[in-house]
C-alpha cells in the first residue's frame, strides 16, 4: 500500500489557507464595507423581539458555557486520547483549543471596526463564545474512535450553532462574528491535522471516509440554509433604507441564523472528513503491523 503523501498533506494545507482567506474576507465584507456592516448590525438589532420560551432556551445555552466547563471538557478530551493510546491526538486536541481561542482574542484586539453604521461599537469579530464551543467540539471529534465520530460531530455542530445564534440573539455578537470564529477553528483544525500527518510520513496511509450518519444531516442542513441565507440577505439589502443608521430587520435576523447554520454545518463536514481520513490510516497501519508481527512469531515457532 503506497503512502499518498502529497494528497494527505495538501488537503489540510488547502483547507487551512481557505479558512484564513475566508476569515479575512468575512472581516472585509461585514466590517469594512457599508452594505455588509449595515446588514450585520441590522441582524443583531432585529433580535429584540418577545419570544419568552426561545429566549429562555438561548439564555440557558449561553449560561451553560463557562470557562470551568470548557476546561473540564478539555481535560476529558486529553484523557480520552491518552486512554486510547493516542497521545499525539491528545496533544493535537489541546493545541487546537488553545490556538483557536488565542487567535480569536488576538484578532478581536487588533482588528478595528470603522463606525460606518454611525454606531460606536467596538470590534467583536471573531466571537469568543463560538470559538470556545467549536474548538472543544472539534477536539472531542478528533480524539474519539471513528465509530462514534459522526454522532459527536452532529452533537457538536448542534451545540455550536445554538451558542452562535444565542450570542446574536442576546446582541452580544453579529452573525459575521460567529462565521469568522468557525473559520478560525477550522484553520487551526487543519493545522493540527497537518502536524499529526507530518509525524507519520514514514508509515503507510489509507484513505478513510466519514460515516454517512454524520455526513448526510450536516450536508442537508448546509444545502437548505446556505441558499436561504443568501436570498434572505439579498432581500434584506433591498429593503434596507440605508439612511442614517441600520434599522432592525427580521429578514436579516433569519438570514443571519441561516448563514450561521450553513457555516457550522460546512466546517464540521470538512473537519469530520479531515479527522477521519487521518484516523483511518492509523488504524490500518496498526492492524498491518500487528498482522506482520503475528506472522513472524508464527513462522519462528514453526521453524523450531
Your description of this structure?
With 304 residues, this protein is mainly alpha-helical. The chain has one domain (5-48, 58-283). The chain has helices spanning 5-31, 34-45, 52-63, 67-83, 87-110, 128-143, 146-169, 175-198, 212-239, 250-303. Helix 6 (128-143) runs parallel beside helix 8 (175-198) and helix 9 (212-239) runs antiparallel to helix 10 (250-303). Mean pLDDT is 82; it is low at 201-207, 279-288 and 300-304. InterPro entries: PAP2/HPO, PAP2/HPO_sf.
What does the secondary structure layout of this molecule look like, with pairings?
Blueprint: H1 5-31, H2 34-45, H3 52-63, H4 67-83, H5 87-110, H6 128-143, H7 146-169, H8 175-198, H9 212-239, H10 250-303
Total DSSP E strands: 0
Seen as an oligomer or otherwise, the chain set is single chain
Specify the number of helices.
10
* Gap between N and C termini: 31 Å
Largest sheet report: none
Q: SS-based structural class?
A: mainly alpha
What order do the helices and strands follow? HHHHHHHHHH
Residue stretches low in confidence (pLDDT < 50, at least 5 long) are 201-207, 279-288, 300-304
Count of folded domains:
1
Query: What value does the Rg take, in angstroms?
Result: 22 Å
Shape: globular
Please, what is the average pLDDT?
82
Tell me the helix content.
over 70%
Estimated share of beta-strand residues: under 5%
InterPro entries: PAP2/HPO (IPR000326), PAP2/HPO_sf (IPR036938)
Pfam families: PAP2 (PF01569)
Organism: Actinoplanes campanulatus
Keywords: Membrane, Transmembrane, Transmembrane helix
